[in-house]
Design brief:
By secondary structure, the chain is of the alpha+beta class. The protein folds into 3 domains: 61 residues, Nucleic acid-binding proteins (OB fold (Dihydrolipoamide Acetyltransferase, E2P), Beta Barrel), CATH 2.40.50.140; 185 residues, 3-Layer(aba) Sandwich (Rossmann fold); 144 residues, OB fold (Dihydrolipoamide Acetyltransferase, E2P). Helix content is 25%, strand content 31%. Strand 7 and strand 8 form a beta hairpin. It is globular, with a radius of gyration of 23 Å. The model has no long low-confidence stretch (mean pLDDT 95).
Length: 450
């Protein structure tokens, strides 16, 4: 095979990153926008030693699971990699991918349950982060997602996986920015004002927190007036904040946020507990599916322990710690984000949770110095998973079960293998939860006995 060569292949399977997999001349070919069962003409984009990357040019024979995407930008945007596949088959593919990853990466012979579906296939995404730019010639404001493998913005007017009101708010911001001389950010020149628009929508109330991420260190009159205009236009907007990010960086938000209008949070409810979600704090983007995970974890703890000592690591706003607090003797939460910890203290007070301790520090450092033993350790790390040091320390402080909540099957398999090599056992089936319909992402919960 050579680059730019056109070949015809039959898609045999699906990769854990959402590519169709075929074989040609003894090499694996990973094909964008291809479904198992498709026969497609593809263009080879890149040839590596043992595999090649390709894009679909023509569909010769369609898989029975291929559908017309709801979104007309599905191929261009790249955010909904599986948007052309029927939902039931999406779940089958994700299920198989988790099983494959556990064997190939983790070397684990474990049972993986079928994924618990999302209650919503569309309109489920309740956190939206759109980069913003401005065209050179027309000066038009662009807001959307980056085209795959580029920093070119796909100007999105309609996105079916987020609440419809978000499209209206983004469009209003695009149009009204001109009235206040707010310019879109130009990455190469590090110029302009508005870098990102971040929306946090409450699934409980429908209220929305709007955050304007700007290339500045402080607000200015036009920006404050612009924020007030957004706040006044939409009854559903609970508040408008400005986040300052003047650095040359790919990180979306800076460290400082100022509330210009209304409130600097929205309210979410999970398992009877009330949570305040701020501009710069982590919370699951699909709250209804997230509640399935919280319930699964809580039910497991209540069925297997009587008033346990619980450690909630990488705790964010202490969502796990607070939801399990009424079945625990004492809960200790660890989170390195200061704003999240401050919100967690406030949330705990408002929920009248008194048996909780919230520590603002790196989880690895906390583990290293902690002397207490915990019946249950809940690990909910970022996509990169846990460091070996953190796993060693979690192992050290746990006297019962580690409940590992992961948004990345590959790093989960790696970390489970590490714990297994230390003598731990996976005592329950791995349970996937579909938090992100139309994408290849899948959340998983594993129970490990120390």
């Amino acid at each position: 095979m050579r680059e730019n060569e056109i070949i015809t292949v039959r898609i045999e399977s699906f990769s854990n990153l959402g590519f169709g997999v075929a074989h040609h001349d003894g090499m694996a070919v990973f094909v964008e926008n291809a479904c198992p069962g498709d026969v497609v003409e593809v263009k080879i984009e890149k040839v590596h030693k043992t595999y090649a990357n390709a894009v679909t040019k023509t569909i010769i024979t369609s898989s029975e699971h291929r559908i017309k995407p709801v979104c007309p930008l599905q191929k261009v945007c790249g955010a909904c990699q599986l948007g052309f596949i029927d939902y039931d088959y999406q779940l089958e593919l994700k299920h198989q991918n988790v099983k494959d990853v556990m064997k190939k990466i983790g070397g684990l012979d474990v049972v993986v349950n079928a994924p618990i579906p999302s209650s919503q296939k569309y309109n489920y995404r309740h956190k939206i982060q759109y980069p913003v730019s401005q065209t050179k010639n027309s000066g038009r404001i662009l807001a959307g997602y980056y085209k795959p493998k580029t920093h070119d913005i796909v100007n999105i007017k309609y996105c079916p996986v987020q609440p419809e009101i978000c499209d209206e708010i983004i469009e209003f911001i695009r149009e009204k920015a001109f009235d206040y001389a707010i310019k879109g950010y130009v990455e190469k020149a590090h110029s302009g004002d508005l870098r990102h628009v971040v929306l946090r929508v409450s699934a409980d109330s429908g209220k929305i927190l709007v955050t304007l991420v700007v290339n500045a260190t402080q607000t200015f009159k036009a920006l404050r007036d612009f924020a007030k205009c957004i706040f006044d236009e939409f009854d559903c907007v609970a508040g408008v904040c400005v986040n300052f990010n003047p650095k040359k960086t790919n990180v979306i938000m800076g460290e400082k946020t100022e509330c210009v209008c209304g409130k600097d949070y929205v309210i979410e409810r999970i398992l009877g507990k009330t949570f305040k979600i701020g501009a710069n704090t982590f919370f699951q983007v699909n709250p209804k599916s997230a509640e399935n995970i919280f319930k699964y974890v809580k039910d497991y703890i209540s069925s297997n322990f009587k008033l346990p000592m619980v450690l909630d690591a990488y705790s964010g706003v202490s969502a796990f710690g607070i939801t399990v607090s009424d079945i625990a003797k004492h809960v200790v939460c660890v989170e390195e984000n200061k704003d999240a910890c401050e919100l967690a203290h406030e949330i705990a007070r408002e929920n009248k949770v008194k048996n909780i301790e919230i520590n603002n520090m790196d989880a690895g450092k906390f583990f290293a110095q902690e002397k207490r033993k915990f019946d249950v350790v809940i690990l909910d790390p970022p996509r990169s998973g846990c460091t070996e040091e953190s796993l060693d320390n979690a192992f050290k402080v746990c006297s019962g079960k580690i409940i590992y909540v992961s948004c990345n099957p590959a790093t989960l398999a790696r970390d489970l293998k590490y714990l297994k090599d230390k003598g731990c056992k996976i005592t329950e089936t791995i349970q996937p939860f579909d938090m992100f319909p139309q994408t290849y992402h899948i959340e998983n919960v594993a129970i490990i006995e120390v």
